Amino acid sequence: xxxxxxxxxHLERHTAGRAGWLRAAVLGANDGLVSTASLMxxxxxxxxxxxxxxxxxxxxxxxxxxxxxxGEYVSVSSQVDVEKADRAKEQRELSSNPADELKELVxxxxxxxxxxxxxxxxxxxxxxxxxxxxxxxxxxxxxEAMAARPLQxxxxxxxxxxxxxxxxxxxxxxxATTRIWLVVAVTFVGLGCAGVLGAKAAGxxxxxxxxxxxxxxxxxxxxxxAVGQLAGVAGI
Length: 236
Known about the structure:
Largest sheet: none
Organism: Mycolicibacter arupensis
Structural class: mainly alpha
Number of domains: 1
GO biological process, one term: intracellular manganese ion homeostasis
Radius of gyration: 25 Å
Number of helices: 9
Number of strands: 0
Pfam families: VIT1 (PF01988)
Keywords: Membrane, Transmembrane, Transmembrane helix
Transmembrane segments: 39-63, 153-174, 180-199, 211-231
Order of helices and strands: HHHHHHHHH
């Protein structure tokens, strides 16, 4: 809890500050569940032995977690580069033509409903205290809460993929004749839990996010199982 929340216990708490890592974590967990389970189900549907299914699942888990980490890092780093370029551009414009930049800020506040005199007063006050931050926030929508954090997103994505991807392996603990169905069953349970947890963390309703995660994962497993079965019938 922050100092401001202690001073004012009625201060509203929002989830925007968690958007970056939360998106990466939810995406990673869902990908871990769906891709690992789909791979295992596809291999099992081809008629492969349990050892082959286990090996394929472990390989997919390792490769997927590393791919998610690298992908998130590259993607979010690109966003950081864009933010830095925007910051440098605004700094140059403020240095070369502060009067026009002040007018631009006045226009922004007018468009948001402030009277001209008040918009001018607010813009001038912000230009005296911190013009760059004012333009980044009100002109470009940049904020500390929404700032891109590559390492955080990369770690959240990799760890959540690994955790989510371990769940389908629980299905291999059952009898050999029902293992493929147990993998599917525990994956559905995991997808439902991931959807609910993601909705709770985001502060949204539970049913719709959980349902779309379960349906999407089910379709992925069904399609992969069909491909695996066709490969097995064809003798590939």
